[in-house]
Specification:
The chain is α+β, with helices and mostly antiparallel strands. 43% of the residues lie in helices and 24% in strands. It contains four helices and seven strands. The strands form three sheets. A three-stranded antiparallel β-sheet has the order 3-4-5, with no helix packed on it. It has a two-stranded antiparallel ribbon with strand order 1-2. Strand 6 (119-123) and strand 7 (129-133) form a beta hairpin. Helix 1 packs across helix 4 (160-187). The longest helix has 40 residues, at 9-48. The radius of gyration is 26 Å and the shape is elongated.
Length: 188
């Protein structure tokens, strides 16, 4: 079926005028929804996973908005987070009532602690804190070089990007609802 558009100049002109009139409302609605989506993702990741600070999650998120194409992209970094971001040291009472290190309590999921009895932290080569774990009675390595030679690796937790990818489907519906609400407010 062929549609001849000649003679519809007034209709085409009216559609163009409507599109130009609505473009600022759509652009501001997309801008608001993108900022809302980024903050919603940060809040949900912080509530689900055991990151100690929300600022670390915010640092690893990026937001780009293109008003010409009316698109927004929210992305997060996929580098694994050191397990020290989820851990607190655990101590027990030793002889003569002194505190003795007894591993680390790790909460990679909020309110679900795991006690790693042989875990310890130290400052790595780049100045960052690294966590390793050694089982009881394992004295086969005492230095970082010996551990590396035996294939023992540092312990890492979930990345911000992996957490965001896991929660993306749950975040979609509230972002769409916010976009519709904001468009309705801007279009008036």
């Amino acid at each position: 079926m062929w549609l001849d558009t000649s003679g519809f100049d007034a209709v085409a002109k009216e559609l163009k005028r409507m599109r130009e009139a609505q473009a600022p409302a759509i652009a501001s609605a997309v801008n608001d929804a993108a900022k809302f989506g980024k903050q919603l993702a940060i809040d949900e990741i912080y509530n689900k996973y055991g990151f100690k600070s929300k600022s670390y999650i915010e640092q690893n998120f990026s937001l780009s908005i293109n008003p010409k194409t009316l698109t927004a992209h929210i992305s997060a970094r996929y580098r694994p987070s050191s397990l020290t971001r989820f851990a607190t040291p655990k101590h027990k009472v030793g002889k003569r009532s002194q505190r003795v290190a007894s591993g680390q309590v790790v909460k990679s999921l909020r309110n679900k602690p795991t006690w790693l009895k042989g875990a310890f932290t130290f400052i790595g080569k780049n100045g960052n804190q690294v966590m390793y774990s050694r089982s009881k009675g394992d004295n086969s390595w005492r230095s970082f070089k010996e551990a590396k030679a035996q294939g023992v690796k540092a312990l890492y937790g979930p990345s911000v990007g992996g957490s965001f990818a896991f929660m993306r489907d749950d975040l979609e519906a509230p972002i769409i609802a916010h976009l519709r609400k904001r468009y309705g407010q801007h279009a008036k």
